[in-house]
């Protein structure tokens, strides 16, 4: 019988966090959710920030429950999170202030200020990263421009998952996949980009040593171990960017495939061995982010289910509480192709009254506004599907290679209507699953680090054996093609 090892995954998302136990053999991965908790921004002195101490309290509660539940040796703990956001530590190793939320307005106009100091094309050449105002580069520049007291006190900068790992084991490091989202890592060398940091006068001395995913960085500290009732569990730097972990769990068996990690954000791309930093990837604003086992994730960030999530929150505030399945049912009944959105319009980035902003966007583009909730959700879903088609064409043009199958992973696959719309729009086979791709990839990378399994191919074989997958074929292709030509 194959040996089974247990690992703990701390998986932090922008809406919720979870602590899970993964039981791994060479044949199967079994996930067990131990503790789930809400996550979201708080407002401090007019800024959006993360309540990091509250986050740590929930994480420690989850680890304590997991250690008790496991009832056996735990072979590792791995932490993943969203990208770009970071905390600053002072000389005593304490967090100077709560980390800023990537949707905070401090980064408004920061891209333009960066381009005054270093041309946009030169920044791209030295980073290979998509230009988004939420990137760590513009957060750090905003703090520099504001003469931030916190930045002046900082001795170390740690991205969110690495900050959690630091609290668990006391080691200061920057995990490669997470660091790659910053836009001040040189993707050609895998090290911090001195040209970008120097030209923008940003402090390079606060950036830690970069470690590759699969590195055992330390052991759960003795003090916190006593607090949580745990022994000296290894803390493993997995693909700490949640998308990097999610891509580990793509159950691909085909040679030519692309992925879509579907959640608050949609991240669509391909896995390649080397970064592609070219005129085409610059034109299409593709990002080259680090992956597990020396891979590169060539992808594009798309606004994703954030638009639906914010619509739902607004309607809740107005007294109508509709579940996501109920919203999908209303969308199913709504009129097809009533209108189209540019889902990546920066006006949709911040929290707030999303239905009102969608209607404002429609009116500005000469399309009729609507108060019909199902119609709004259908417009969002169709617009996302068309955006996926456009990005699929960009991927094939930039790489010179067509893909046959789109694998969709993450919580967004529960929206089966959007998955079908995606297959309709792109005209390719779509395979969905697993839902908990990030936690699965987190745990499987730990299993690679401990030598239990060999590599990504073996990890993906285990995923295929462990989870139910669903296949979608394109339907009503002629109508979708006709609508796409009108965009």
Task: Explain what you see.
With 487 residues, the protein is α/β, with parallel strands linked by helices. It has 19 helices and 21 strands. The radius of gyration is 22 Å and the shape is globular. It starts with a strand and ends with a helix. The model has no long low-confidence stretch (mean pLDDT 97).
Walk me through the topology.
Elements: E1 5-12, E2 16-24, E3 29-38, E4 41-44, E5 47-50, H1 52-70, E6 74-80, E7 86-89, H2 110-117, H3 120-125, H4 136-145, H5 149-153, E8 156-159, H6 160-169, E9 174-175, H7 176-179, E10 185-186, E11 191-192, H8 194-199, E12 210-211, E13 215-219, H9 222-228, E14 234-237, H10 242-248, E15 257-262, E16 266-272, H11 279-283, E17 287-290, E18 296-302, H12 306-317, H13 324-333, H14 354-364, H15 373-399, E19 405-409, H16 416-426, E20 429-432, H17 437-449, H18 456-466, E21 470-472, H19 477-485
Parallel strand pairs: 1-6, 6-14, 9-12, 15-19, 19-20
Antiparallel strand pairs: 1-2, 2-3, 4-5, 7-8, 10-11, 13-14, 15-16, 16-18, 17-18, 20-21
Helix pairs in contact: 10-17, 13-15, 15-16
């Amino acid at each position: 019988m194959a040996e089974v090892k247990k690992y703990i995954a701390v998986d932090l998302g922008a809406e919720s966090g979870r602590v899970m136990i993964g039981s791994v053999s060479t044949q199967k991965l079994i996930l067990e959710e131990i503790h789930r908790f809400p996550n979201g921004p708080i407002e401090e002195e007019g800024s959006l920030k993360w309540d990091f101490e509250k986050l740590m309290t929930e994480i420690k509660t989850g680890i304590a429950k997991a250690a008790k539940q496991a009832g056996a040796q735990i072979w590792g703990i791995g932490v993943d999170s969203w990208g770009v956001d970071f905390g600053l530590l002072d000389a005593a190793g304490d967090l100077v202030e709560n980390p800023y939320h990537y949707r905070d307005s401090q980064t408004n106009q920061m891209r333009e200020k960066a381009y005054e100091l270093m041309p946009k094309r030169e920044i791209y050449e030295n980073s290979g990263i998509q230009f988004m105002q939420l990137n760590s580069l513009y957060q750090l520049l905003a703090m520099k421009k504001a003469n931030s007291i916190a930045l002046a006190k900082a001795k170390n900068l740690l991205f969110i998952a690495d900050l959690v790992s630091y609290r668990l084991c006391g080691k200061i490091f920057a995990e490669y996949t997470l660091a790659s989202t910053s836009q001040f890592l040189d993707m050609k060398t895998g090290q911090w980009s001195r040209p970008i940091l120097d030209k923008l006068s940003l402090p390079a001395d606060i950036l830690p040593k970069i470690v590759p995913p699969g590195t055992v960085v330390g052991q759960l500290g003795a003090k916190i171990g006593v607090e949580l009732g745990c022994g000296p569990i290894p803390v493993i730097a997995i693909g700490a960017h949640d998308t990097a972990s999610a891509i580990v769990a793509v159950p691909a068996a085909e040679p030519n495939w692309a992925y879509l990690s579907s959640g608050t954000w949609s991240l669509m791309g391909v896995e390649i061995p080397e970064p592609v930093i070219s005129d085409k990837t610059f034109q299409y604003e593709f990002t080259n982010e680090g992956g597990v086992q020396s891979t590169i994730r060539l992808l594009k960030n798309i606004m994703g289910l954030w638009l639906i999530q914010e619509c739902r929150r607004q309607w809740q505030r107005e007294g109508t509480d509709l579940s996501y399945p109920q919203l999908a049912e209303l969308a199913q009944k709504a009129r097809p192709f009533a209108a189209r959105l540019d889902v990546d319009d920066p006006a949709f980035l911040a929290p707030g009254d999303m239905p009102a902003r969608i209607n404002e966007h429609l009116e500005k583009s000469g399309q009729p506004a609507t108060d019909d909730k199902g119609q709004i959700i259908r417009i969002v879903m169709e617009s996302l599907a068309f955006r996926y088609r456009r990005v699929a064409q960009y991927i094939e043009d930039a790489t010179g290679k067509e893909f046959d199958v789109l694998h969709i992973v993450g919580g967004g696959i529960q929206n089966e209507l959007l998955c079908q719309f995606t297959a309709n729009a792109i005209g390719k086979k779509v395979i969905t699953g697993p839902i908990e791709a990030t936690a699965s990839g987190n745990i499987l990378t730990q299993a690679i680090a401990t030598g239990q399994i060999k590599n990504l191919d073996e990890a993906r074989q285990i995923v295929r054996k462990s989870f139910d997958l669903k296949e979608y074929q394109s339907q009503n292709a002629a109508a979708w093609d006709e609508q796409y030509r009108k965009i």
